[in-house]
């Protein structure tokens, strides 16, 4: 039944295509023949004409009868059109911007002609050729190797290696090869996640997932690898690029994805974000001989408010903020974000440069202040 339906649809499309092509070719041939006949006859009749408009009207009637009486027809390959009949013809002096089917010059005047035609198709020839072409195309589609079948075989081979049996792999491979966008999304998620092929296929069929940009798809994969449910992972993918904090639950919220950090690195991350949001310049690491006691006290107060480690708080208040401790905690933040997000973490980490005056390095968050939200509730 499906094969018959395909053949009928293909037959209709081929027939329409052949008919349109024949019509177009006939129109071009007709225009060429009219241009070879009309100008010479009309120009000769206007040599001694008293009224050009009246003469053109008279010529219009005579030419229609003459052309049709002379069995005017257009012969095309395979004779898809049996005959073309000129139904009416209007000759006129063509004005600027006035359209005409054919135009020619008579002295300094531009003459034009508009016409309509009736076409008699050779239906037996046209439909017969359409039937043959349709069966040939359907046979080629079914039996000869095509790009689509090659893709299907490749998908099937890959899916069998993931653990699917041949029947399951073949069914899924046919679906994927039929939709390039879906297969591209499937391949992306299969490469970036450890989800089962069936789960990935269900995801790649969802319109909300198909609509994601390339970067959003990367965030979707990161969220899925973070064990989020599909709905929540899509929400992360569509989340604006923003950094927020939930200090009470020991989380940095990156692009909507909650990432648990060890307490001390989290507070250092929050401190850097606080400085960035306030518009303060990049912080230059203090010298080994002189830790920064003022900033150490500020960071210690943040830790004390949110249950930080007492030893870290004590060290900051007694010894100040040290360059070594800053470097260690930035590296811990970088390691954890890279582990969870890969290259997506780059915009949420630090930019650093050497301070020209002190020759020491200074650091700040790479993220723009407008993308930082610091709204934790006090414990």
Tell me about this structure:
- This protein is α+β, with helices and mostly antiparallel strands and 379 residues long.
- It has 3 domains: 2-93 and 106-129, no CATH class; 152-238, no CATH class; 243-373, no CATH class.
- The protein has 14 helices and 10 strands.
- The strands form 3 sheets. A 4-stranded mixed sheet has the order 6-5-4-10, with helices on one face. The protein has a 3-stranded antiparallel sheet with strand order 1-3-2.
- Helix 11 (263-277) crosses helix 14.
- The two termini are 69 Å apart.
- 23% of the residues are buried.
Protein topology:
Elements: H1 2-45, H2 52-69, E1 81-93, E2 102-106, E3 109-121, H3 123-143, H4 147-161, H5 166-178, H6 180-192, H7 197-204, H8 207-210, H9 214-225, H10 230-238, E4 243-246, E5 251-254, E6 257-260, H11 263-277, E7 283-284, H12 293-305, H13 310-319, H14 323-341, E8 350-354, E9 361-365, E10 372-373
Parallel strand pairs: 4-10
Antiparallel strand pairs: 1-3, 2-3, 4-5, 5-6, 7-9, 8-9
Helix pairs in contact: 1-3, 4-5, 5-6, 6-7, 6-9, 9-10, 11-14, 12-13
């Amino acid at each position: 039944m499906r094969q018959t339906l395909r053949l009928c649809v293909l037959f209709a499309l081929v027939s329409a295509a052949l008919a349109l092509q024949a019509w177009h070719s006939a129109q071009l041939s007709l225009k060429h023949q009219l241009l070879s006949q009309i100008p010479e006859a009309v120009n000769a009749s206007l040599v001694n004409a008293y009224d050009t408009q009246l003469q053109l009207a008279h010529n219009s009637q005579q030419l229609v009868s003459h052309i049709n009486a002379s069995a005017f027809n257009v012969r095309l390959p395979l004779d898809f059109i049996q005959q073309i009949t000129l139904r009416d013809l209007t000759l006129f002096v063509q004005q600027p911007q006035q359209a005409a089917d054919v135009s020619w010059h008579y002295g300094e005047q531009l003459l034009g002609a508009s016409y309509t035609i009736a076409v008699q198709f050779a239906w037996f020839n046209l439909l017969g050729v359409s039937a043959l072409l349709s069966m040939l195309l359907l046979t080629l589609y079914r039996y000869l190797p095509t790009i689509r079948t090659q893709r299907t075989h490749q998908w099937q081979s890959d899916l069998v290696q993931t653990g699917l049996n041949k029947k399951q792999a073949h069914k899924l491979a046919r679906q994927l090869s039929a939709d390039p966008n879906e297969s591209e999304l499937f391949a992306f998620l299969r490469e970036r996640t450890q989800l089962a092929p069936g789960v990935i296929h269900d995801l790649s069929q969802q319109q909300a997932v198909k609509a994601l940009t390339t970067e959003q798809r990367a965030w979707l994969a990161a969220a899925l690898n973070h064990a989020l449910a599909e709905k929540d992972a899509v929400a992360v993918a569509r989340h604006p690029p923003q950094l927020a904090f939930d200090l009470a639950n020991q989380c940095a919220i990156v692009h909507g994805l909650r990432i648990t950090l060890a307490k001390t690195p989290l507070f250092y991350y929050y401190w850097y974000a606080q400085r960035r949001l306030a518009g303060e310049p990049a912080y230059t690491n203090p010298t080994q001989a002189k830790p920064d006691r003022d900033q150490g006290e500020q960071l210690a107060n943040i830790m004390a408010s949110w249950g930080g480690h007492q030893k870290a708080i004590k060290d900051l208040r007694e010894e100040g903020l040290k360059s070594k401790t800053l470097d260690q905690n930035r590296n811990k933040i970088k390691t954890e974000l890279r582990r969870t997000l890969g290259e997506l973490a780059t915009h949420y980490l630090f930019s650093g440069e050497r301070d020209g005056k002190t020759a020491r390095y200074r650091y700040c968050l790479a993220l723009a202040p407008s993308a930082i939200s610091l709204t934790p509730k006090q414990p």
